[in-house]
Design goal:
The protein is α+β, with helices and mostly antiparallel strands and 349 residues long. It has 2 domains: 6-211, no CATH class; 223-343, Sandwich (Immunoglobulin-like), CATH 2.60.40. It is 19% helix and 46% strand. The chain has helices at 14-26, 28-43, 50-57, 150-162, 301-310, 328-333; strands spanning 6-9, 63-68, 71-74, 83-95, 102-110, 118-120, 128-130, 133-145, 165-181, 194-211, 223-233, 240-250, 254-266, 272-283, 286-296, 313-318, 338-343. The chain has a 17-stranded mixed beta sheet that branches. A hairpin with a 2-residue loop joins β14 (272-283) and β15 (286-296). α2 (28-43) crosses α3 (50-57). It is elongated. The protein starts with 5 loop residues before the first strand and ends in a 6-residue tail after the last strand.
Length: 349
């Protein structure tokens, strides 16, 4: 199956997109009847008129539902214009039945460039269909973010990181290859009861809901201390650096490659105490082991060092300053991040 380019509509712009789509939605029932007639005639070898081509190009509901078993996004590119990659090993689509016609989708190729915040193009992949449910994959594909939609895309990434779940929309219009069986009383394109036919310009869309990483201030288990591997301290100024191993828990089926992240760090009293560098953050489902390098600020050094080496502390890590990554999209996404980690009394002897 090939689906490219899809349009990605994040929850950040879902309300405006939904509102603008209402007239099209109201027309869907009428469009379905017209589309059924067009497709039935086409499957029967009678061709597509210009009017029919326009009719099936609307989203008449051929895709009734969609789900992703996982989603991989690599956000480490610095390309200009912004271009990342994403993929999924499990895309499932619910398909509308066409009265009097049995069909099996064997390949689809999107080609409509109606863009909301990003688009992607995919390589071909096999599809399997059982009844009205079709399963395929999204191969590693370029995910292109347009400059004037960068803020919305960053909000989408931020929601993936901080929320427990997220709903977003994919829509497309493209070419679909189907294996069709229709009643023998109709003239078939090749004089056989079943054949593969490509229909050009079929519109479709669906919403998808996925669990998020849920890294936020209310999730006390999102970040966990594992060990101290190294430390340095200036005995004169009290400035110090701690190299920690921490665990970032990812309860979702998201694979996010974010690269190095630098987060502002506050102590248990809410006082800014320095920064924490999370190295090579490449998240997979489950527990992720990450190296965190904490560098104290001069003003807080002596007090903080004494606290973490005698009694421990609970820190808050935040990207609110908008400087958490060299990648502008990721840096903006981290503005909404605020996570807690409890540091036990560290043995530095």
């Amino acid at each position: 199956m090939k689906i490219a380019p899809y349009v990605l509509v994040a929850s950040a712009v879902a309300l405006s997109v939904t509102a603008s789509a209402i007239p099209a939605f109201l027309k869907r029932a009428g469009n379905q009847a017209a589309a059924f007639a067009c497709l039935f005639n086409y499957f029967a070898g009678r061709g597509l008129s210009d009017t029919c081509s326009m009719t099936i190009a609307t989203d008449f509901g051929i895709v009734t539902s969609g789900s992703l078993s996982d989603l991989t996004i690599d956000l480490t590119s610095s390309a200009d214009p912004l271009s990342f990659t994403w993929s999924s090993t499990g895309l499932t689509l619910g398909l509308l039945s066409i009265p009097g016609v049995n069909f099996e989708v064997t390949e689809a190729k999107s080609r409509d460039n109606n863009i909301d915040i990003a688009r992607f193009e995919t390589p071909s992949a096999p599809a399997t269909q059982i009844g009205a449910s079709m399963k395929t994959t999204i191969g590693q594909s370029p995910l292109i973010v347009y400059t004037d939609k960068q803020a919305q895309f960053s909000a989408f990434v931020g929601d993936l990181i901080t929320n427990s779940s997220l709903t977003f929309f994919l829509k497309s219009s493209g070419d679909v290859t189907v294996r069709v069986t229709i009643p023998a009383s109709y003239t078939l394109p090749f004089g056989v009861p079943s054949t593969s036919i490509t229909v050009n310009g079929v519109g479709c869309s669906s919403s998808y809901t996925m669990a998020g990483i849920n890294l936020n201030i209310n999730n006390s288990n999102g970040l966990q201390f594992k060990s101290l591997s190294d430390h340095t301290v200036d005995r004169t100024t009290g400035a110090f650096s701690l190299t920690l191993t921490i665990i970032l828990k990812n309860p979702s089926q998201l694979y996010l490659k974010l690269g190095d992240l630098t987060l502002d760090t506050m102590d248990g009293a809410g006082v800014a105490v320095g920064t924490t560098l999370l190295q090579a953050v490449n998240l997979v489902p489950g527990d992720n082991t990450i190296t965190a390098i904490v560098t104290s600020s001069a003003a807080a050094s002596a007090t903080l060092y004494k606290k973490v080496t005698t009694m421990g502390d609970t820190w808050t890590l935040t990207g609110a300053a908008g400087t958490g990554s060299k990648n502008t999209v990721v840096a903006a996404a981290l503005v909404s991040l605020k996570a807690m980690i409890t540091i036990p009394a560290l043995n530095v002897d």
